[in-house]
Amino acid sequence: MGVPFSRDVLLGVSMVIARRLEEWGLIEEVGRVNESGGIPERVFGLTDAGREFVEKYLTEERERPNSYEMRIERLKDEVDDLQTTNERPKVKVDQQYEQLKDLENRFDTLLDRLEEQLF
What Gene3D superfamilies does its record include (predicted)? Predict the structure, then answer.
């Protein structure tokens, strides 16, 4: 015996899919509409990543990625972002270290001059 196919089933399935696409960063809520007088319904639009996905996978004849491949790609992107984010403080620390070394050299020079004047 099959499951009765109803509007509720379609809404439930579509929300599960929408949540997953939203988690993957492919869609985002862009507004709400209230055509029936009840609870306003969410309206979704593609994110930049979603548009890139459509261009990459849905406009060419190629095998569709599975959810694991998509998750791996997303994690790779997150790692790249973290590496870029972590590189900025490292550059700043390196600059400050160079400034500290410069100050240390100046201090040593001043000490040498002071010693020469005193002795």
Answer: Winged helix-like DNA-binding domain superfamily/Winged helix DNA-binding domain
